[in-house]
Amino acid sequence: MRQRTEERVTGWLFVAPYLALFTAFLAIPTLYGFYISLHDWHVLGRTRPFIGFGNYSALLRDDLFHRALLNTAIFALLTVLPGNALSLLLALGLNARVRGETLFKTLYYMPVVLSVAVTAIIWRWLYSAEFGIMNHYLSLFGGPRLAWLNSPELAMPSLALMSVWWGAGGNMLIYLAGLRGIPEQYYEAARIDGAGGWNRFRYVTAPMLRPTLLFCLIMSVIGSSQVFGQSYILTGGGPHYSTLTVVLYMYQTGFSLYRLGYACAVAYMLFAVILGVTAVQYRIIAGRSEEASA
Amino acid sequence: MRPHRIALHLALGMAAILFAAPVAWMVVMSIQPEADIFRPVPQWWPRHPTMENYSALLQRAEEAPVLRWLGNSALVAAAGVTSYLTIASMAAYAFARLRFPGRNLLFGIVLATLVVPGQVTIIPLFLILQKLHWFNTYYALIVPGLSGVFGVFLLRQFFLTLPRELEEAAVIDGCSHASIYRRIILPLGRPAMATLAIFSFLGSWNDFMLPLIAVNDNDMRTLPVGLMIFLGRYSMQYGLVMAAAVVATIPVLVMFLLFQRHIVRGVALSGLKG
Questions:
Q1: Contacts of B39 by beta carbon, 8 Å cutoff, 6+ apart
Q2: The pTM is what?
């Protein structure tokens, strides 16, 4: 009996520090943010009138917010599929018992450990129209001189390319772990049945890798929908709002225009969109695998 | 080797060069004099290697105290990692092994917050830090990052895989749960703790959003935000900017190379099976 009491007390004592932090810096801010979003809350305002979902209905009519949503979707489109395809290709290559695997892995993963500021500093110079090596090597192959970050059409794709380089190594490791988790016997059985390389990939690797694929795709979509540092540092949302993302819009609304209620509403709209997109993705991919197994 | 094996190695090698080139370019530019940086043809092998950008960096300490930022980042990361590991491992042990009322409900709530994007909390967090009078202090930079859902989840998953026999024997010997945590769980949990250490270090060192809103005093910045200021102010002195970027990168690269295998294991561990 004394032991049970000791266990209970220890249990509560051991979660207490975490719980305090969790409450103060995650639970309360999450609820508080929603509360703020229901008010006309300006930093300098004398009153903060409750306006219900007023901020949300204003957002639905806000052209800049629509632009930010569209830009963020474009960024997600330009990074998620190409990025995951690259990560998967690298992982498949490394899984084929190559020499120097550790060295390759180290180099592919290295950009992941850089901060967004360092990444931005490097790429701003690579993209420099006059002195950048991107234009230099393009011109060697007879390509045109591109304006990269200064062009409304190319600025977002440029940020996407940089982000794929920055993040591909992370998913590469996850795919590699997934590939290594496929039992060797499955491949042997397929080989005995006379399956070639492509068929082994199609009928063994692809279905076995589906949970990993689902995880990586969902996490990539969630991550890319929160893109902020890249455009905040490199373009400030420009040129002509072409790289204004949702989180950047939230940041500018809150910390440059001091409209905290409106900014919180932006954050919660993003939260809702992420939840919705994740649910749809989960349905599509999980649904398909049920179909396949049926 | 057969031809397609050679082709595979070539392709992987090419990819490795493309991944490494921008980082190498940063280092190369940081040791070139300004005049060589603006040459039309890239100089991959510096003709006049020099440390002048680094010494110029130190002379800019008034407007851009890079060493101070480095110290701030180191302090924030050291405090963050130490407490992250302590607090998360205690909570994870309690969630994994101890029976106490409300445990499952509590863990459910904690898990549910994994879906909350960090940005949702940024503005309320800013207001809370103001109310606590923590704005522009180390408290604001450090305390919100002292623990995290991810770490609790990761460690709990790992602790669940540990064999129970040792703990049961210890209970029979009259050991308290606090000393089981200290004498059994912590030593056995070292691989997972190492993984969490490297991930929380990288997260803390590279965090951009919290230091951006928690401080605005130049002396209180951490490196990532400081570098951004640097980029704005010296946008055309690229050797200088690159030197600052190298200074910010060396600690993460060293930690990365030292803890690399824990990263690889952590990816497998973070429960892609679940």
A1: none
A2: 0.91
Considering the domain delimited by A63-112+155-293, tell me its CATH architecture: Orthogonal Bundle (1.10)
Between B18 and A144, the higher pLDDT residue: B18
A237 token code pair:
């949302």
A14 vs B93: CB contact, 8 Å cut-off? yes
| Cβ distance of A113 and B121 shorter than 8 Å | no
Compute the average pLDDT of residues A249-270: 94
Q: Is B184 on the interface with A (CB under 8 A)?
A: no
| Domain ranges within chain B, ordered by starting residue | 1-50, 64-269
Interface confidence (ipTM) of the complex: 0.89
Domain ranges of chain A: 63-112+155-293
Q: Write the pLDDT tens digit of every residue in A261-271.
A: 999 999 999 99
Rg of chain A on CA atoms, in Å:
24
User: Residue A31, Cβ neighbours under 10 Å: how many?
Assistant: 12
Q: Is the pLDDT of residue A289 over 80?
A: no
Contacts of A3 in chain B (CB under 8 A): 171
Inter-chain contact B119–A270, Cβ cutoff 8 Å? yes
Query: What architecture is the B64-269 domain classified under in CATH?
Result: Orthogonal Bundle (1.10)
> Which runs of consecutive H residues, i.e. helices, occur in chain B?
3-30, 34-37, 52-59, 66-97, 103-112, 122-131, 138-142, 149-161, 165-172, 177-180, 186-188, 190-206, 209-214, 223-233, 238-269
* Mean pLDDT, residues A209-230 taken together: 89
What pLDDT score does B273 carry?
A: 40
